[in-house]
Amino acid sequence: DTGVSQDPRHKITKRGQNVTFRCDPISEHNRLYWYRQTLGQGPEFLTYFQNEAQLEKSRLLSDRFSAERPKGSFSTLEIQRTEQGDSAMYLCASSQWDGTDTQYFGPGTRLTVL
Amino acid sequence: GIQVEQSPPDLILQEGANSTLRCNFSDSVNNLQWFHQNPWGQLINLFYIPSGTKQNGRLSATTVATERYSLLYISSSQTTDSGVYFCAVGSSASKIIFGSGTRLSIRP
Questions:
Q1: By three-state DSSP, how is residue A46 classified?
Q2: A and B: number of Cβ contacts within 8 A
Q3: Mean pLDDT, chain B, as a whole number?
Q4: At B102, phi and psi to the nearest 5?
Q5: Confidence check: pLDDT of A1 > 60
Q6: Nearest CB to A102: which of B33, B86, B97?
Q7: What is the pLDDT of residues B48-69, one digit of tens each?
Q8: What residues 14-73 of chain A have any CB closer than 8 A to a CB of chain B?
Q9: What's the rounded Cα separation, in Å, for the pair B97 and B89?
């Protein structure tokens, strides 16, 4: 069990650029979540997948944000036309739905938009 | 939506002390989890506990769903217990809402 991994760990970009983050969940987990965390706050839910289906999206997820999980394994989160307000830690978590939903988090990708 | 309040916001203790962290929530939940975020930012799941009591070593948690609160107990604190403790709750079995956390500092 290698845990949840995320890539890259850090990303610095200029305003207006597009960025893409990757998350590899724990291999047998069928659920995958994306969260955003800003300094001093708890993580905020963005979206989640069960297998390859995106089942829920937060209103925080503007049309500049898109997430995919094409084969029900890894997932990508893309932010188009980045803004300074997008600067945050982007966290991925996975779980195996078996009547409980214990979520295991990756180390996060820290995005800085200049 | 569900509101989550954690108390206290900050707690400073000497090594070896015991502590109780509280999480109040505004509506019925069927998903409640406690997490520890260490000083390097990694979130570790401590308990999945929508009701009842669980124990894991020096840590234990109790959720009283009918009264809409959960407690996390840490006994014999160690410096490695420092960090932020989050409670997260949900009324569905998927989306969870995090509280603002309790920042715990353990002094040697």
A1: strand
A2: 49
A3: 95
A4: -120, 120
A5: no
A6: B33
A7: 999 999 999 999 999 999 999 9
A8: 31, 40-45, 48, 50, 55-56
A9: 5
pLDDT in tens, A24-61: 999 989 999 999 999 999 999 999 999 999 998 888 78
- Is A105 in the B-facing interface, judged by CB distances under 8 Å? yes
Token duo for residue A28: 């047998």
Chain A contact set for B42 (CB, 8 A): 105, 107
E strand spans, A8-103: 10-13, 19-24, 31-37, 44-50, 53-57, 65-68, 75-79, 88-95
SS3 at position A89: strand
pLDDT in tens, B67-108: 999 999 999 999 999 999 999 999 876 789 999 999 999 999
Residue A72: pLDDT band with limits 50, 70, 90: confident
Q: Tell me how crowded residue A40 is: count the other CB atoms within 10 A of its CB.
A: 9
CB A49 within 8 A of CB A55: yes
In sequence order, what DSSP letters do the residues of chain B get, joined into one string?
A: ---EEEE-SEEEEETT--EEEEEEESS--SEEEEEEE-TT--EEEEEE-SSEEEEETTEEEEEEGGGTEEEEEE-S--GGG-EEEEEEEESSSS--EE---EEEEEE-
Which residue on chain B is closest to A46 by alpha carbon? B95
Q: What is the DSSP letter of A7?
A: E
Contacts for B53 with CB less than 8 Å, ≥ 6 apart: B60, B61, B62, B63
